[in-house]
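pinned: reference chain
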Amino acid sequence: AINAESIMLLQSSNDGHLDFKKLKQSYKNLIHDSETLNAPDKTGMLLNNFALEYFKRKDYEKAQKYYKAALQLEKKPSVIYLQRLNNYLKSSFEGKLMRKSALLNSAQKGLTIANNLKNQHYQILFTLLIYLIENKTKEYIQYIEKTAFPYFKSRNHTIFMKRYGKELYDYYVTEKEFEKAVEMSNFLIDVIKIHN
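pinned: its structure tokens
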């Protein structure tokens, strides 16, 4: 029942059917229920999803708080641990909530775990995060072009194709690489048409 309600909350928030006050209360109720049932896997999933709602609203402090709580419920090393660690670090980075050295150290640990698990998805995400933390824009863009975007495109991972495609598009426009910008724009329009 908790899984079904959680999915309904995610869909409702994406469709804009629930106001945030009701959404928060629904998440808090479900989190309480899962804790009462002693279901840490469900609690972690709900905390992670709740944090995402704050992240989407650019409330990075609250997102970080709930991502951290979700992270603490997962035993490393696992793909779920990597997902939650990446989310926690992204909210910390976006909100400037951690020192650069601590962020970098945690991101490098995440990359090491991803390497040990041979998980290409999180190897890519942690590499990108490390480039962002180190403020290596050129390397970041090159890595998106040559590795990340082709990988997500080959997996038909719409969310990441849109995210990194838009970053490439913005970069191409800024750098006046208009041919590449038009090509990426056309690709993104096609992706949106197919998946909407």
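why pinned: Residues 137-154 form the longest helix (18 residues). The chain has ten helices and no strands.
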